[in-house]
Amino acid sequence: MHPTDAVRASVRPPLRRRLSMLLTAALTVGLVTAASPIPAAGATATGTADGTTATDTADGTTTRILASMNAGRTAYGLVPYQAWSALGALAAERAARMAAVGRLSHDIAGDDIGESLTLRGIGWMGYGEIIARSPFPFGTAAADNVYEMWMASPPHRSIMLSGIYNYVGIGTAQSADGTTWVAAMMTESRDHTAPVARSRSLARSGRDVTFTWAGFDPRLQTHTAGLRSFDVQARRDGGSWRTVRDNTTGTRAVFPDRARGHWYGFRVQAADRRGTLSRWTSEIRIWVP
User: What's the rounded Cα separation, in Å, for the pair 114 and 19?
Assistant: First the structure.
């Protein structure tokens, strides 16, 4: 059985429709100790000004868990989860509640997950939560311990390797005794990740200027919107921007007979099929002598 099959069977019955109440695939991992945690692939620790390492914080621990989780997904031919800050904030609150009480429980973590997501404006078609407690304080040992516990548990492993969920939020908290508490929330949601636009080249031939660009829509495990079009803007000598291509699917434009003795700047923005816009690229300029 492929790692994602159990999730498909137990979490998302085929007749369920979007925004319906889906089964919550959320189980608990007990306390497990590890004398020598296995390093997480793709995650490294770096020094900080106070002598600690970047992983010895809530954010650092979260980052390492996510890196391990996505490395595992890649190894199984799945698309890495896209981190969603709104999900991460909710997960952090749920982890903090468990840490404050000292009990590993989805009920202790907070209210009904579906209602909590909806109240925060987090759109979802399905969701799952996995939680854990590690004896280690924030840092590499705790992050690796939690990830290895989840991977060793088939229900938790199935959620991490889901073929349906596309977004994730991970929250961590530390109790007074130094133990680390973690909640990870995954959703199947519409694509709201911004596409990416890139300037490729800007060249001159006599007084003709040619600008080329490219872009893509980051792939999600499900519901990737796909790239739709580009907007291109130009300006002369640092003046006001003017749209010179609107909703074009092209990636090249020639601007002939530019006036001599000026700088010409260009930038590009991408849009996906849901209308989500990328950031404008940084300006690139060329001089027409």
Answer: 9
Where does residue 237 rank: exposed (0-12), middle (13-18), buried (19+ CB within 10 A)? exposed
Query: How crowded is residue 135: how many other Cβ atoms within 10 Å of its Cβ?
Result: 15
pLDDT one-digit tens code per residue, 207-236: 999 999 999 999 999 999 999 999 999 999
Pairing type for strands 82-83 and 167-174 reads parallel
Average pLDDT over residues 93-120: 95
Q: Give the C-alpha separation, 182 to 165, whole Å.
A: 19
Phi–psi pair at 144, nearest 5 degrees: -70, -35
- Rounded Cα gap, residues 66 and 130, in angstroms: 13
In this predicted structure, the answer to whether residue 238 has a pLDDT above a threshold of 50 is: yes
Q: Taking 50 as the threshold, does the pLDDT of residue 41 lie above it?
A: no
Please give the C-alpha separations between residue 191 and each of 105, 116, 194, in angstroms, as whole numbers.
30, 20, 9
Query: CB of 125 within 8 A of CB of 166?
Result: no
Which value, in Å, is the radius of gyration of the alpha carbons in the chain?
A: 24
Order of strands, sheet of 242-248, starting from the edge strand that comes earlier in the sequence: 242-248, 227-236, 262-272, 284-288
Mean pLDDT of the chain: 85
pTM for this one? 0.81
**Cα→Cα distances 45→63, 88, 124, Å:** 11, 21, 34
